[in-house]
TrEMBL record:
Residues 2-97 form the Pyrroline-5-carboxylate reductase catalytic N-terminal domain. This is Pyrroline-5-carboxylate reductase. It comes from the Bacteria. One of its GO terms (molecular function) is pyrroline-5-carboxylate reductase activity. Keywords: Amino-acid biosynthesis, Cytoplasm, NADP, Oxidoreductase, Proline biosynthesis.
Length: 268
């Protein structure tokens, strides 16, 4: 099986690196294409990839076409792919919003998988939701799931609605966590800690809390109760967050990302 990754940015390069180590791909069966000359130059230094500058040199050879360009670059790319593609090829797209129907129509390829990964894929700790058009067989889907699993955990969802929804939760989610971290680091700095101490205090707090959560069946609410003593410091902080409606605002933010994903699909 030959895989072509189109777009060697944050996510495309992450997937290319991870998939190239999969047992499903024999040596030198990973092709990679980018439109940026600087990117091509740096890719050529990575010896285990076959790097391409032109679609016509690589697309016809691919069994699986992995698309990782920004949604606003997709339309132009699809038109070029359509001129070279054959209907037996399979497309996997990780682009936010861009729908399976749009991709089938714009590339003339019926077999399309839509996936939504997240940035921790870079360290093998990503979570990817995915769904496929009915033309993709169960065996093909199993192969694709294996490839997606090279960057962490994947979950199959029943419809594209859940791809847009997981964009609002897990796809964009790491940025919400970084937002929280940044806020706490700014508070620590304001309290007088050095930049390094602020970083250690905050990152260890996040790491420890997530590890605790993962090692039990307790809900976040139950864990909050274990930290907060009646009339104590944590309660003061949690009350302040409740008074300021922080929980509702976070939910609203997740919905904004979800709605934006839907909107991106409608813009096509
Ligand atoms: N960054 C993230 O955390 C996540 C991103 N995504 C999705 O992944 C996709 C890629 O995002 P990033 O990797 O962050 O973007 P990026 O900007 O880092 O990478 C995109 C790459 O595509 C290349 N490119 C643009 N047009 C091209 C074309 N016609 N042919 C070949 N290469 C082309 C660019 O030169 C660039 O290297 C987006 O559609 C985004 O919605 C999904 C989940 C998480
Ligand atoms: O912000 C974006 O549009 C992409 C999709 C999920 C994470 N980054």
């Amino acid at each position: 099986m030959k895989v072509l990754v189109i777009g060697a940015g944050n996510m495309g390069l992450t997937y290319a690196e991870a998939m190239s180590k999969s047992k499903l791909l024999k040596k030198r069966n990973l092709m990679i294409l980018d439109s940026s000359p600087e990117k091509i130059l740096s890719l050529k230094k990575i010896l285990h990839f076959d790097v391409f500058e032109n679609l016509e040199d690589c697309l016809p050879k691919a069994d699986l076409i992995f698309i990782a360009v920004k949604p606003y670059h997709s339309e132009e790319l699809f038109a070029k792919i359509k001129a070279l593609a054959n209907p037996g090829q399979i497309v996997i797209s990780i682009m936010a919003g861009v729908t399976i129907g749009t991709m089938q129509e714009s590339m003339g390829i019926p077999k399309v998988v839509r996936a939504m990964p997240n940035l921790p894929a870079q360290i093998g700790k990503g979570v990817t939701s995915y769904t496929a058009s009915k033309e993709v067989s169960r065996i093909e889907l199993l192969t694709i799931e294996n490839l997606l699993d090279t960057t962490g955990k994947s979950i199959h969802v029943s419809s594209e609605k859940f791809i847009d929804a997981s964009t609002g939760i897990s796809g964009s989610g790491p940025a919400y966590v970084f937002y929280f971290m940044q806020s706490m680091m700014e508070a620590a700095l304001k309290m007088g800690f050095s930049a390094n101490d602020s970083k250690v205090l905050v990152s260890k707090t996040f790491e420890g809390a997530v590890d605790l959560f993962n090692q039990s069946d307790l809900s976040p609410n139950s864990w909050m109760d274990r930290v907060a003593s009646k009339g104590g410091t944590t309660r003061a902080a949690l009350d302040s967050m409740d008074d300021n409606n922080v929980k509702e605002l976070i939910k609203e933010a997740a919905y904004s990302a979800f709605n934006r994903a839907v909107e991106l699909g409608e813009e096509k």
